[in-house]
Amino acid sequence: MGASPKTSLYVASIPFGDVKDISMPLDQATQKHRGFAFITYFEKEDAAAAMDNMHNGELYGRVLTVNYAQPQKMKGGEQGWASQAVWADADTWFERQQQEEEINRLNVEHQATVSAAEEADRKKLQEAQEGETEQGDAAEDPMAAAEAEALKVT
């Protein structure tokens, strides 16, 4: 009798490094292997070597497709399909909401500070212009200059 499929995969995979686990999912209805497996190595480099050497290789007459496994996707999450349950991103959503509220509060504070500074500058400029106007009026108006001179003499 031949070796089991799991043993055959183990024997084919062991030259590339220490194998941590081999998982071969079964069809629920027939209880037969579904035609693929997940092989986990202890080291990333070993997994990369297995992928490089076994991809498009042949094992018992079947061409192998070897790549990194992706997390199983399930309905939910922010993009519709996700690798996690709908409620898994609730904490990050709440944190983002708090950060956005804090940013909005800081923006309002900043805008109020800028407005107050602009108003103070506007008042200083207006006071300076009013002071120049009073001095300028006396210098330009000869009558006002004569009256100011007469008041100085007496």
UniProtKB/TrEMBL annotation:
Q: Name one GO molecular function term.
A: RNA binding
Which residue intervals are annotated with compositional bias (Acidic residues) in the record?
129-140
Under the heading SMART domains, the entry gives:
RRM
Entries under CDD domains matching the protein: RRM_PPIE (cd12347)
Pfam families reported for this sequence? RRM_1
Q: Region labeled Disordered — which residues?
A: 112-154
Tell me what this protein is called: RRM domain-containing protein
